[in-house]
Amino acid sequence: MSNAIATAPPADIAVRVRKLAKRFGSKTAVEDLSFDIATGAAFGLIGPNGAGKTTTFSMLAGYLRPTAGKIDVLGFAPTAVDQLRSRIGVLPQDALLPASDGVGEFLVHMARLQNLPKNEALAGARKALAEVGGQDWWKQRCGSLSHGMAKRVALAQALLGGPQLLLLDEPTAGLDPRVAYDLRRIIRERKGRSTIVISSHNLHELEELCDAAAILDRGRLVACASMSELTAANEEIRILVAAGTRRGTEPGRVPVRALRDLPGVKSAELDEERLEIVVYFERAQADAETVIGQVLRALLGNQVRISGVTKGRGLERRVMEV
Amino acid sequence: MSPITEVALVTGRELRKSFRSTKGVLLAVLSIAGGAGLAMLFAWLDRVRRENLPPEIDWRAAQEQFFSRWYAPETGKALASCPYSLWMMLVATLWLAPWLVALMAFDAVSGEMQHRTVCFWTIRVQRGSYMIGKCLGAWTAVLAVMLGMNLVVWTATAFVGHWPAADVVQWGARFFAVTLPISAAWCGIATLVGSQFKTPILSLLFICATFFCLWLVRVSAGFAETRWLAYAYPNAFDGLLLSPNLADVARGVVSTGLTAVATASAAALVFQRKDV
Question: How high is the ipTM of this complex?
Answer without folding.
Answer: 0.85
